[in-house]
Amino acid sequence: MAEAFVTLTGEIQAKSPAISFINSNKGKPLLVVNDYTFKLNKATTTTKYWICTINGCAAKVHTDSNNR
Hints:
Blueprint: H1 2-11, E1 19-23, E2 29-33, E3 36-43, E4 47-52, E5 60-64
Antiparallel strand pairs: 1-2, 2-3, 3-4, 4-5
């Protein structure tokens, strides 16, 4: 069993997410990560907090104030 785990783990490769920014129809900023859309929920001087726009989705993202 341990050998199978090592083999599977060795095959996993990290991929960078595809990230972009768009505006909603109302002109609000939206963050798009791998085809999932997040709306800006809160912004502080150093961090922006984004929440998923799909009902029931609990995913959240945070970026620095420069959207990195």
